[in-house]
């Protein structure tokens, strides 16, 4: 789940979300990435919150659909590691790699492949990416986890969809917003039907659905909307 809420706002919430069993993947975000300078409150929260056995923490990095340079993206990932101790990465706004003709778009795939290989050499542990739609199969094989669906609940339930062929559910992630608490099970069941092993839910809608946390894993203590 995206945890786009500063720990200074609700430190207790942070501790509950990062508690073992509460979530599997958690995206942390200082300011559309690691921020221009180190945030000492954020760094301290990550350093002092016990996360042994807890979720995989992913540092948010925007790729701007391939428009950001390799150097800038690598710098953000390095800063997450060196300044916050976050060794895995969530690449947002990843291009789908599907051209207008429906085939592989080498202009996307070649630089993205180079980026991912560079991040692995730099020591990135888990590399997740978010095209928000079903990308070319090459990307599904390239990334450790891919968010193939970022969508509102009604479209999620009633719109077309298909599981990505030949991909283990543990590598497929859905993010569903505008999801009231009493419809969480519908959203999860639909995601399972579409081959997702990870599902993040938000009760809020656009433009900022991930500024609150309402859902944790079923065996974890519920978290209420925090704004």
Structural commentary:
This is Spherulation-specific family 4. It holds the Pfam family Spherulin4. It comes from Dietzia lutea. The protein has helices at 11-17, 40-48, 70-84, 106-122, 137-142, 153-158, 184-193, and strands at 2-3, 25-28, 56-62, 88-92, 127-130, 145-152, 172-177, 198-201. It has 227 residues and is an alpha/beta fold. It has one domain (2-211): Alpha-Beta Barrel (TIM Barrel). An eight-stranded parallel beta sheet has the order 1-2-3-4-5-6-7-8. Helix 4 links the parallel strand 4 and strand 5 (127-130). 38% of the residues are buried. The model is unreliable at 221-227 (pLDDT under 50).
Q: What secondary-structure arrangement, pairings included, does this model have?
A:
Blueprint: E1 2-3, H1 11-17, E2 25-28, H2 40-48, E3 56-62, H3 70-84, E4 88-92, H4 106-122, E5 127-130, H5 137-142, E6 145-152, H6 153-158, E7 172-177, H7 184-193, E8 198-201
Helix pairs in contact: 3-4
Describe the structure concisely.
The protein is α/β, with parallel strands linked by helices. It has helices at residues 11-17, 40-48, 70-84, 106-122, 137-142, 153-158, 184-193, and strands spanning 2-3, 25-28, 56-62, 88-92, 127-130, 145-152, 172-177, 198-201.
* CATH fold annotation: TIM Barrel
Summed up, the domain count is 1
Q: What is the CATH-assigned architecture?
A: Alpha-Beta Barrel
Could you name the CATH homologous superfamily? Glycosidases
What would the principal axes of the Cα set say about the shape? globular
Q: Which strand order do you get reading across the main beta sheet?
A: 1-2-3-4-5-6-7-8
| Class per helix and strand makeup | alpha/beta
Count all strands and give the number: 8
Q: Could you list the spans in which at least 5 consecutive residues all have pLDDT below 50?
A: 221-227
Distance between the termini: 16 Å
Biggest pleated-sheet summary: 8 strands, parallel
Radius of gyration: 17 Å
- In terms of DSSP E residues, the strand content is 15-25%
**Number of contiguous helices:** 7
